[in-house]
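To the wet lab folks,

You asked to see what we're planning to order before we commit. Fair enough. Below is the target structure as tokens, and below that is the sequence we designed to fit it. If anything looks off to you, flag it before the synthesis order goes out.
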């Protein structure tokens, strides 16, 4: 049986996927807002605020959600540009025989960077704030965010300081291997 799907059918299938995914995302946003609305009495009780301040809480939640979405979009674009290019550049700069070592060192450096970023961010947050109240959270979050920005700037500066190779790196010549198709096995 042959595949008789037309390009129009493939486009319709893609359109259904897009519709399904965006509908799911919208559903999650509405569900999230519904959870906040149902939590309002508890939020009002815990924060000990009147109705006006509670309205500002809802508005700030909406603004933070929108800003967070924009920030996540920007971060996602940055990560999607960096993640494929870093290994490609790294593995393109070493001889073929050293690809395994280079890949392992790169992966190890990424994992260590993630671990130290979390540890340093948590230490800076703890030194300047705590989770007890919103003011203390903001007091700890700002320096932690600035420390992350400083480390990102240092990483960018160190990457820019790497000199370009003076010549193209080539792999050493390897010994010729016999093609298995050329080997005749005697019966």
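Sequence we intend to order:
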């Amino acid at each position: 049986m042959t595949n008789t799907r037309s390009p129009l059918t493939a486009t319709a299938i893609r359109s259904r996927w897009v519709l399904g995914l965006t509908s799911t995302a919208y559903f999650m946003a509405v569900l999230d807002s519904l959870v906040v609305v149902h939590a309002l009495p508890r939020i009002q009780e815990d924060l000990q605020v009147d109705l006006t301040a509670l309205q500002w809480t809802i508005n700030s939640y909406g603004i933070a959600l929108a800003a967070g979405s924009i920030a996540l979009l920007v971060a996602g674009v940055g990560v999607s540009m960096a993640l494929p290019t870093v290994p490609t550049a790294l593995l393109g700069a070493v001889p073929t025989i050293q690809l395994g070592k280079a890949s392992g060192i790169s992966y190890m450096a990424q994992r260590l960077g993630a671990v130290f970023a979390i540890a340093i961010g948590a230490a800076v947050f703890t030194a300047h704030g705590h989770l007890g109240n919103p003011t203390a959270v903001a007091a700890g979050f700002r320096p932690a965010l600035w420390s992350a920005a400083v480390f990102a700037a240092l990483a960018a500066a160190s990457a820019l300081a790497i000199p370009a190779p003076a010549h193209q790196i080539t792999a050493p010549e390897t010994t010729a291997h016999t093609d298995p198709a050329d080997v005749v096995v005697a019966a």
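Structural context that might help your review: The chain is about 75% helix and 0% strand. Residues 96-160 form one domain.

Thanks,
Computational group
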